[in-house]
UniProtKB/TrEMBL annotation:
Pfam families: AAA_SelU, Rhodanese
GO biological-process terms attached to the record: tRNA wobble uridine modification
Keyword Mitochondrion: no
PROSITE patterns on file: RHODANESE_3
InterPro entries named among the record's database cross-references: AAA_SelU (IPR058840), P-loop_NTPase (IPR027417), Rhodanese-like_dom (IPR001763), Rhodanese-like_dom_sf (IPR036873), SelU (IPR017582)
Any one GO MF annotation of this record: tRNA 2-selenouridine synthase activity
Taxonomic placement: Bacteria, Fusobacteriati, Fusobacteriota, Fusobacteriia, Fusobacteriales
Assigned keywords, A-Z: Selenium
Gene3D superfamilies, A to Z: P-loop containing nucleotide triphosphate hydrolases (3.40.50.300), Rhodanese-like domain (3.40.250.10)
Domain Rhodanese: 11-133
Record-given protein name: tRNA 2-selenouridine synthase
NCBIfam families per UniProt: PRK11784.1-2, PRK11784.1-4, tRNA_sel_U_synt
Length: 342
């Protein structure tokens, strides 16, 4: 049976990674770009595991074969479709054990050109943890600072759409980086997925710089890898500034789909920082749908004072003032045009 390490995979072209773990395992964390064709479904894996512990290894194997055999026609069709689009099929599971081995053996016997990922997802994690510093070396970080609501994320998105090199940490973290940062996010945060997305982005980056939003070490419940955090500290720092009215407008857009319950939960969390009186005031503004006033008061009374304390440690290459996001984007472009990142 042919095995291939992730390092070797990076030299390959036109391959597809097939994650044969359960849908739950795959959703939690996987190798970016892989597809999920599970050997066992979530409930089936529980049953097989129970049989292994309580009955015997043989009974567990018997159950596993019974479960997968029912879906073999469907699995075969999915694999066949992938084989038409890719020259190589690479199966992976948690540790490169029975699940990926059985799929590799089966489809190899049917004449497909396929391999098994050495040590599975665990091997991949070990490799990228060791290789992250290498792919990050030589990249100059351009860090965008600014008070809450200035639109740093919107500006980065537009710059990325225009072809500039952007590392969107908040997108990869599934969190906006504040008390209200989890509102509207569809996935649960995952440290492993966060690190994988950063690694793959930097590995595929064809520029000697990246634009990134200023972040603390922690974004929600995930943490920046040390090498990224240090590169951001030693990067070029820009300060973005716009009017309070524009900041409120941006916040209204960012949280337009937020539920009243979600906002009230965040305000309740702030109670220990802002006191009972302001908590009640903010809650009343929320319940009366007066979100513009709520946003304005939060940034002026809570976020801006916090930001003023943290911003003193930075020296800025330039200050970009703007009245709308397009002007902010152009301000960043004007700065980039003065630099040579070759």
């Amino acid at each position: 049976m042919r095995q291939v390490s992730y390092k070797e995979i990076l030299k390959e072209k036109n391959y597809i990674l097939i994650d044969v773990r359960t849908p739950k395992e795959y959703a939690a964390e996987t190798i970016p770009g892989s597809v999920n064709i599970p050997v066992l479904l979530d409930n089936e894996r529980v049953e097989v595991g129970t049989a292994y512990k309580q009955v015997s290894k043989e009974k567990a194997k018997e159950l596993g074969i019974e479960f997968i055999s029912k879906r073999l026609p469907e699995v075969f069709q999915e694999i066949n479709n992938l084989d038409k689009k890719h020259k190589k099929l690479i199966f992976l599971c948690a540790r490169g054990g029975m699940r990926s081995s059985s799929m590799t053996a089966l489809f190899s016997s049917l004449g497909y050109k396929c391999s098994k990922l050495t040590d599975g997802y665990k091997g991949y994690r070990k490799f990228i943890s060791e290789d992250l510093e290498r792919v990050n070396s030589g990249i100059k970080y351009i860090v965008l600072h600014g008070r809450t609501g200035v639109g740093k994320t919107k500006i980065l998105q537009q710059l990325e759409n225009k072809g500039y090199s952007v590392l969107d940490l908040e997108k990869y973290a599934d969190h906006k980086g504040s008390i209200f940062g989890a509102i509207g996010e569809k996935r649960k945060q995952s440290q492993k997925r966060f690190e994988s997305l950063i690694y793959e982005h930097l590995r595929e980056n064809h520029h000697n710089y990246v634009l990134v939003e200023s972040e603390s070490k922690r974004i929600g419940d995930v943490y920046l890898p040390d090498t990224i955090s240090e590169s951001m500290k030693s990067g070029l720092h820009l300060f973005l500034d716009t009017s309070l009215d524009h900041r409120v407008k941006i916040l209204m857009e960012d949280y337009a789909d937020a539920s009243e319950e979600a906002i009230l939960n965040c305000i309740d969390f702030l109670k220990k920082y802002i006191g009972k009186e302001k908590t009640e005031s903010y809650s009343e503004l929320t319940k009366s749908n007066n979100y513009a006033q709520l946003a304005g008061e939060l940034v002026v009374d809570y976020y801006d004072p916090l930001y003023e304390k943290s911003i003193k440690k930075w020296e800025f290459e330039s200050i970009v003032n703007y009245e709308n996001v397009d002007e902010g984007v152009q301000g960043i472009i004007n700065f980039l045009d003065t630099k040579d990142f070759s």
